[in-house]
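Section 5: illustrative case.
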């Protein structure tokens, strides 16, 4: 029997810890995990927090800055947002099947919704859900947001995506491209949305056991995960000085290269991106470190990677020297 797990906390470090615990202890049964964070900005695994949001101002105002385990961009969470996580055997991963659960639940409120682009779900042409993905040897994770009554003023106040990214999407502000589902149906609230998702999940995945995270996870086993997600090292990490910084926009996302170049060789590199494939970004960083800072050498370093994104990096390698 599959499992539906309901969070018992609104602390982002606890909720992200539960998600990773479910991945690590995956027993072969598909899971849908539903959770909410209070006043939180969640950045992608390979993003630079200081470039994506107003960290100091947000934390001074009582917000939580968190980093998830998947790629993609920064998002704002409050109790007007409901998060979902689908965890399943890797060989059974089916994005269309997962989306059927979300779309079915939202459409049950009389709202037309469709999946768009690389990771967005739209209603009335505006985004109410962003999605991200991760795969391990045994399990696959697909998680995302559902905005139903989020504070849009905070969303636009604290998030600061790059002008290059906004220009590429042809929009003028964060707030202009998102929508709360309650704008389309005022009857929606968190509990009704949870019930709709549970019903839709059972229709799509079959009979499922509904459990709370508190009763599922033995006392004490979650603490190492919470410690990781709440740590300064995971959330922000080092912010060393680099002498070369370049940014470029690709079809799969934006990349900022921060390089410490000495004697025409890259001694250290940090690669920040909103790309969904965080494994590629981490491999790209490793490939650049130690390479000579010249076109042929960097092309050779990137070509050694076993990721399809490398061809676009190589085709635009000159951007690293502009």
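Designed sequence:
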């Amino acid at each position: 029997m599959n499992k539906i797990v309901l969070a018992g906390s609104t602390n982002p470090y606890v909720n992200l810890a539960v998600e990773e615990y479910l991945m690590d202890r995956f027993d072969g049964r598909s899971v849908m995990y539903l959770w909410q964070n209070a006043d939180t900005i969640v950045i992608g695994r390979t993003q630079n927090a200081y470039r994506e949001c107003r960290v100091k101002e947000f934390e001074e105002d009582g917000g939580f800055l968190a980093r998830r385990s998947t790629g993609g961009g920064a998002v704002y969470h409050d109790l007007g947002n409901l998060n979902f996580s689908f965890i399943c055997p890797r060989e059974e991963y089916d994005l269309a099947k997962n989306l059927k659960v979300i779309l079915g639940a939202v459409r049950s409120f009389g709202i037309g919704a469709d999946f768009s682009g690389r990771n967005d779900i739209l209603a009335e042409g505006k985004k109410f859900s962003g999605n991200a993905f991760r795969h391990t040897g045994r399990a696959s994770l697909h998680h995302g947001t559902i905005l139903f009554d989020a504070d849009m003023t905070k969303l636009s106040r604290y998030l600061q995506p790059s002008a290059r990214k906004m220009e590429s999407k042809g929009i003028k502000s964060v707030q202009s491209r998102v929508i709360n589902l309650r704008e389309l149906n005022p009857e929606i609230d968190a509990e009704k949305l949870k019930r709709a998702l549970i019903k839709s999940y059972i229709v799509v995945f079959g009979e499922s056991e509904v459990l709370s995270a508190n009763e599922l996870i033995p006392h004490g086993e979650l603490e190492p995960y919470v410690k990781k997600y709440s740590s300064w090292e995971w959330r922000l990490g080092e912010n060393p000085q680099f002498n070369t910084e370049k940014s470029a926009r690709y079809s799969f996302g934006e990349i900022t290269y921060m390089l410490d170049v000495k004697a025409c060789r890259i001694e250290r590199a940090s690669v920040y991106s909103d790309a969904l494939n965080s494994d590629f970004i981490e491999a790209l960083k490793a490939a650049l470190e130690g390479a000579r800072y010249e076109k042929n050498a960097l092309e050779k370093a990137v070509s050694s990677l076993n990721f399809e994104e490398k061809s676009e990096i190589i085709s635009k390698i000159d951007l690293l020297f502009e």
